[in-house]
Amino acid sequence: MECTINWMPGTGMGFVAETGSGHFLTMDGAPDGGGRNLAARPMETVLAGTGGCTAYDVVLILKRGRHDVRACQVKLSSERATEDPKVFTRIHMHFIVTGKGLPASAVERAIALSHERYCSASIMLGKTAEITTSFELLDA
Question: Which of 20, 69, 92, 117 could bond to 62 as cystine, CB 3.0-4.6 Å?
Fold first, then answer.
C-alpha cells in the first residue's frame, strides 16, 4: 500500500493525499495551528478510516453469512492524550445495523470478528486506545 502526501502552498496547512489506488483526500489543520479549516484533520481521517474498515468487515461478514443486511452505520467517538504524541486513548464505536430478519447474535459476532481478527486499523489502534463497541439492530 502506498500514499503520497503533498503540502498545498498558499493554503496554510492544507495537504492532499493521493492513495495508491489513485484517489485523493484533502486534509487541513485547525486555525489555531496554521490551518484554515477547509478539510478534515489528519487524525480525523485516521478515525474515519478505522470506522470504514470495521464497517466494511461487518457488512462483508453478514453478507457471507447470507444475512439480509440493508444498512450499516458506525458512529465513532474518541479521546486523545493531552500531550504529544496525542494518540487516541479511547475509541467507542456504535454500530446501527439494519436488516430483514437479522439476528442480533450475527451482528454481535460480525463486530467481534472485525475487532479480533480482520480490521487492521482498529487492531492497530487498540495498541494505544481502549476500544469499545455497542450496537443497535433495526428491522428493515
Answer: 69
Q: How far apart are CA 8 and CA 132, in angstroms?
A: 36
Is residue 54 within 8 A of residue 122, CB to CB? The reply is yes
Name the DSSP class of 33. Answer: G
User: For the chain, where are the alpha helices, taking DSSP H only?
Assistant: 42-64, 104-113, 120-125
Q: Is residue 53 a contact partner of residue 45, using CB atoms and an 8 Å limit?
A: no
CA distance 27 to 41: 5
Model confidence, pTM: 0.93
Residue 65 carries which DSSP code?
Answer: T
Cβ–Cβ < 8 Å for 32, 48? no
Task: Give me the domains of the chain, ranges plus CATH numbers.
Answer: 3-33 (no CATH), 42-139 (3.30.300.20)
pLDDT < 50 positions in the chain: none
